[in-house]
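FIELD: query
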Amino acid sequence: MAATTAAMPAFLGGGATASGRPMRLGGPIFLNSEEPGELAREHRRLGYRAAYAPKVELKEKEKIRAIIKEFAAQDVALAEVGAWVNMLDPDPEKRPRTWITCRSGWR
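FIELD: result
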């Protein structure tokens, strides 16, 4: 059974990715807080090791540093930012705007 489990993908119960490392999973949290430490701890409390990046403006440098520090302290990877656009848009006029949206996805 061990050989079979080891060969299975993580989402089927194998527990590791093709690289042999565990896959980090995350999901939504419903904590009403903007404090980075509380958000990071809530992810861990729920068993998550990956997270959506909290909303923050790029100009809020100290808050960004606090988010990075607190999530790293809890070993939670910031895995996604709120920038859902097609970066490969075939329209040459839209495409540059999609890149700007992605770069400022911390908003």
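FIELD: remark
The longest strand covers residues 77-80.
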